[in-house]
Amino acid sequence: MRLASHEAHELNELLLSCTNSIQCMALFLNQATDPELRDMIARQYPAHIQDYNMKVEFAKQATGSADKLNVPELQQIQGNVPNFQQQYPAVQPQVKLSQLDDRSIATSYLLTLKRAGREYAWAAFECSTPQLRLFLEDAFKMCSHQAFEVWNYMARKGWYPVAIAQRNVMQAMGQTFQPVPYQQPAAVYQ
Fold first, then answer.
1. Which has the closest alpha carbon to 139: 39, 60, 54?
2. Distance from the CA of 126 to the CA of which of 23, 87, 95, 155 falls in 20 to 30 A?
3. Contact at 8 Å (CB) between 120 and 147?
4. Bigger pLDDT: 89 or 13?
5. Count H helices, E strands: the chain?
6. pLDDT digits over 135-154, tens only?
């Protein structure tokens, strides 16, 4: 399989990004003190290694990767719905530290997953090689599902502010946008 030059450049950036993610996850596993956080990162870690190795295969082999990325199911939130709090513990960036706390680890990991997800989505839109495009779409879904799990963890801990939209905002939106009355809209042209 031959990649277009822009696909090769995207793949290079994704490999650099994934290298960074894997190394950060190694540090997170080493420094996390909350067993739930450590277990979540450890459970998600193998998919990132597989993702990286598949990208290496795309870079090295003309045939791409024969593997299929292990995309986790979207975590179902039942009984663990985060409490929507009025007050959240303050955070202040530290300019000197030797150890990350669990909140910093979770925040960094969530932001890493969000960034990687955006990069995968963007690269997929620009990709013209079907096998690589499908892989990138799976990688986006992997990041999306994992980020949802990390967000849920952070929201339950009170580390991620979540506010319910005001009723009047939802009512105004509901009044502004009306459904299209056609299930087959092209039929109106026949």
1. 54
2. 23
3. no
4. 13
5. 5, 0
6. 999 999 999 999 999 999 99
